[in-house]
Amino acid sequence: RDGQLTFNNQPLSLEALVTELKAVRRTQADLNVIVRGDADGPLQNVAAVLTACRAAGVSDVGISGRGSHGG
Predict the structure, then answer these.
(1) Helix crossing, 14-27 with 43-55: angle to 10°?
(2) Neighbouring residues of 13: CB distance < 8 A, sequence distance ≥ 6
């Protein structure tokens, strides 16, 4: 909800995410990524992460949404 981005449970910026993903791809060429967005968060945040994945060369990307609170 607060727009915080994390990778391996560590907060980071979009630019740092691209760097981290590129580093991981050096040892795992078939890297896949699951983007978990909060149902109450802006879709723009998820789109930005998908763009970062693409910039890092990650083509196997899935999306998992977290349910909204209050039903």
Answers:
(1) 40
(2) 5
User: One digit per residue, pLDDT tens: the chain, 71 residues?
Assistant: 577 899 988 999 999 999 999 999 999 999 999 998 877 778 888 899 999 999 999 999 999 876 655 44
pTM summary value: 0.81
Beta bridge partners of 60: 32
Amino acid at 55: A
Strands (E), 1-71: 6-7, 10-11, 32-38, 60-66
Helices in 1-71 by DSSP H: which ranges? 14-27, 43-55
